[in-house]
Amino acid sequence: MEKLTTVEGKAYPFGMKNVDTDIVIPSHWLKTISRTGLGKGAFEVLRKEPGNVFDDPAYAGSPILIAGDNFGCGSSREHAAWALGDLGIKVVIAPSFSDIFSSNAF
Q1: Pair 64, 85: CB distance under 8 Å
Q2: Distance between CA 6 and CA 25 in Å, rounded?
Q3: What is residue 1's predicted lDDT score, i.e. its pLDDT?
Q4: Which residues of the chain have pLDDT under 50?
Q5: pTM to 2 decimal places
Q6: In Å, what is the CA distance from 63 to each residue of 27, 34, 66, 75, 89?
Q7: Where are the beta strands (DSSP E) in the chain?
Q8: Phi/psi zone of residue 51: left (φ > 0), alpha (ψ -120 to 50 degrees), beta?
């Protein structure tokens, strides 16, 4: 793992509150112990909606996600943190995080 000191780039202006880990990565993606390939399933349900921020070319490859309160709540799936990383997100900025998600991310 590389040491993270500075992250620069565009940010996904997501803003959603109470983002459950089921939203970050649906359960059918949990059949792997590999950390690679999960980015394809990240926010899968939301990406089915037209005009979603994750498929907007203006934010493609953004290393930052700006979210609302209580990001990563719900089940304790460490795959959620892995999926964000595989999607290219290095930093999530939010007012608060679920304790378990926060631990898994670190």
Answers
A1: no
A2: 26
A3: 59
A4: none
A5: 0.90
A6: 24, 21, 10, 24, 4
A7: 11-13, 64-66, 91-93
A8: left
Note whether 87 and 42 are within 8 A (CB). Answer: yes
Residues 70, 95: Cα–Cα separation, whole Å: 7
Spatial CA neighbour of 38 closest among 102, 3, 89, 103: 89
Look at phi and psi of residue 15 and say left if phi exceeds 0, alpha if psi is from -120 to 50, else beta.
left
Sign for the CA dihedral angle at 96, 46, 86, 65 comes to negative
Confirm if 24 and 42 have CB atoms less than 8 A apart. yes
